[in-house]
Amino acid sequence: MTAIGIDTGSTSTDAVVYDLEDHRILTYAKAMTTHEDLEIGIREVLRQLPRDLIDGASYISLSTTLATNACVEKKGENICLLFIGASKAAVEWTLSSYGFEGMEFMRFIDGDPDKGIEPDWAALDGMLPSITKHYDGIAVAQIGARTNDGLYERQAAERIAAFSDIPVTCSYEIFREVNVIKRGAGALLNARMSKVIAEFFDAIHAVLEEDGINLPILIMRSDGSLVSEEYTLSYPVETLVCGPTASVKGAGELFGERQAVVIDMGGTTSDMAIIKNGSPKIDANGIRLAGWQTFVRGVSIETLALGGDSRVWYSRRSISLDSRRVMPVSILASRFPEVLPELESTEEWYDGCSVALYEHFLLLKEIDDGDRRFSEDDRRICEALREGPKSVLQLARAIGTNRYSVRTERLEQLGAVLRCGFTPTDAFILRGDARDMTCGAYGKLISGSAERAASLALGFISRSTGREQEWIIDEVYRQIKEKLYCKIVRMLWSDAYGTERSPYAPKELETLAKQAFAEEISEEKTRFFRNTFSTDAVLLGAGAPIHIFLPDVARALHTEWRVSEYSGVSNALGAVLGNVCVYETVHIKADYITPKADENDGIFFISGENREAFDDLDMAIRRATVIAKERAAKKAERCGAKGEVTVTVEVKKKDFDTDFGLARIGADVTACARGKLL
C-alpha cells in the first residue's frame, strides 16, 4: 500500500509517495510555499509527482507548520476569551505563565457549579453586542468544568448562537482538565487557528478537484496520530505542532536511531525533539510553544524562532537575527523581477542608512474597511501594495511621510502584509550553499535575479555597518550555530534534571552554553580549564539547510550527526506514518468531609453532569472504566477510525499517607483507543 504525504511549511511545500509495506520513498517533490495563495505551491508540488503513483495511492496525509508559525509569530484571528467564574485577579497574576500578553480581549462573568452559583447570563447578554462587533470568534472557559461536564460553557455557546453566528469554542470539549486558565489558553489558540487550518484544507481541496484526484484526506495531530479532516476543522489546536511532529517521525523512520535529537530547520522555526528507546518523547503535561501553555497532548517539541527566513537585522556595527519571519529578498526578486531597479537604487546610498531601504512589503490579503484595528495609514499602505511589492521609500511617498515613519508592524502581525528582507536564505545563495541543499530545496531560486537582489541587500548592510560582506555572512552562520547549540543544551539539560532540580536559572545556563560553544569552535583552545557539554544522542538533521550547521554543532557537543538525501522532505514522510490514537480520562475523587445525607451515599465520586457516588473505590473504578472506554471509542470514531477499535485502560490510584494509615483520595482511569483510518 502506498500513501502521499504533503507538508506545507513556511518556506517550502513538500510531497512524498511512500510505500508503507516496503518502507521506502518512491518519489518526492518540492515547491515554494506561496502564502498569499497556498494553492499555487500545493498545485506545483503535486504536479511534480508521477500521475500513476498518485492514482495508485490509498490516501493523502497532511502536516503543516502554518499553525505552529502563527502561534510563534502571535498571528491569527481576533478572538475574545470569556471566563465564567475565573478570578480576574488570578488570571492577571499568572498572565505571562500561559502565554497571554494582555487582558484586553478577555471578558469575565460570575458562575461556579461547585458553589451552586449560576452564571450571570444578564452580564453576558450585555457584552454580546460589543464582542460580536469587534471580534471574529469567542473562546469560553468555565471554572469547575469537571463538576458539570462543562455545562456552563455549552449554555454560554447556546446564548451566543441565539444572538449571532460568530464561531464559539468551548474549552471543556477539547481539554478535560481542571486548570481553567490553561484550558482558556488552549481554547483561545483553537479559535485563532480555525481559519488558518480551514484555508489550508480549502487550498488542498481546490487543487485535488482541479486535477481530478479523489483520495481520502487525513492530517497528523501533535502526538503523531492521524485524524480525519472533519475532526481537525473542529479541533485545529490538536494540530498545533503537527509539522514538527511529522519531521520527528520522518527522521526516526529515515535513520532508525534509538537515542537521538532531531533538529528540523525550516523557514520560520527550528524545531527539536528527543527520541529515547526509539520513541519520541511525549509531553504529558501538554505542549508548551512560544510561551503558550496548553493541555494539547503531543510530542515534546522545543521551538526556536530561527530559520532560513529569519530577518537579519543590523544596528551600527552589529548583526542580529530577528525572531520574525520575512520573505528572503532573493525569493522576492525571483517572483517579482520588477523590484530590481528599486533595489539597485540603494547603491546610491554610499554610507548606507539606519533604515533597511532594501526591504520591501507584499500585500497578502485585503483588510476590512470596517475593522477598527487598522489606521488610515494602514489602509493607504494596503492601497499602494495592491499594485505590487513596494520598498520602504516607495511606501513613505505613497502615504506622505518619511522613511523613518513607515509603520507596518500591525499589518504584519495580523497577516495582511509580508515584509521582505535579507535572511539566512540569501546568505546561503550568495555563499553557494543553496546549490547543495538536500532535496534541491532552493535550486530553482538560484537565478541571476535572486543572486543580484541578495548581493544588493548585503552590500547595503555592509555600507551601513562598516563591516565586510564576508564577515556579515560568517556572523550570520555563527549565530545560527550558537542558537542551535544553546537550545539543544537547554533541552537536554531540562530532560536530564528538570527545571526544579536544575542548579542554574535559564539565563545562567544560556551564558554557560554560549561560553562553551565559543570555546569549542575556537581555533585557540585552552586546556587549563574548559566548560564542556556533551551527549551520546546522535543529532538527526531534517529540513533543507540543516546540513550546513549540523557538523559544527555536533562537534561542539562531542557527538555524531546524520543527514540523508531525504532530510529535506522528512516532514512529508512523517505525515503518512500513523493511525488513530486517542485518550479519555475519567476522574474519581474522594469526599470524606461532606456529611452523608443517608447511609446509601458514597464517598467516591465520578465527576460530571450526572455525578455518581460509590462506597468502594474499586467499584468506582469499574464504573469509570466503562465510561472511559465508551468515550474513547466514540472519540476514535469522530477522529475517523474505521472498523475495529482496540481500547486499553490504565488506572492510577491516588493514595495519601496519614498518621492513621493510607487514605485513598481517588483515581484517574485513562482509556486509549487505537484504530485504522482506512
Describe the protein.
39% of the residues lie in helices and 24% in strands. The strands form eight sheets. A six-stranded mixed sheet has the order 3-2-1-4-9-10. Strands 11, 12, 13, 18, 25 and 26 form a six-stranded mixed sheet that branches. It starts with a strand and ends with a strand. Helix 17 packs across helix 18 (448-465), helix 19 (469-501) packs across helix 20 (506-521) and helix 19 (469-501) crosses helix 21. It is globular. Among the domains are: 324-464, no CATH class; 580-676, no CATH class. Mean pLDDT is 88; it is low at 438-442. The chain contains 23 helices and 31 strands. It is α/β, with parallel strands linked by helices and 678 residues long.
Compute the separation of the termini in Å. Answer: 11 Å
If you average the pLDDT, what whole number results? Answer: 88
The secondary structure category is alpha/beta
- Number of H- or I-type helical stretches: 23
Radius of gyration over C-alpha positions, nearest whole angstrom: 27 Å
What is the percent of helical residues? 25-40%
- Could you name the ranges where pLDDT drops below 50 across 5 or more consecutive residues? 438-442
Strand proportion: 15-25%
Please state the oligomeric state of the protein chains shown. single chain
Number of strands: 31
Biggest sheet overview: 6 strands, mixed
- The shape is globular
Strand order of the largest sheet: 3-2-1-4-9-10
Please name the defining characteristics of this protein.
6-stranded mixed sheet, globular, 31 strands, 678 residues, alpha/beta
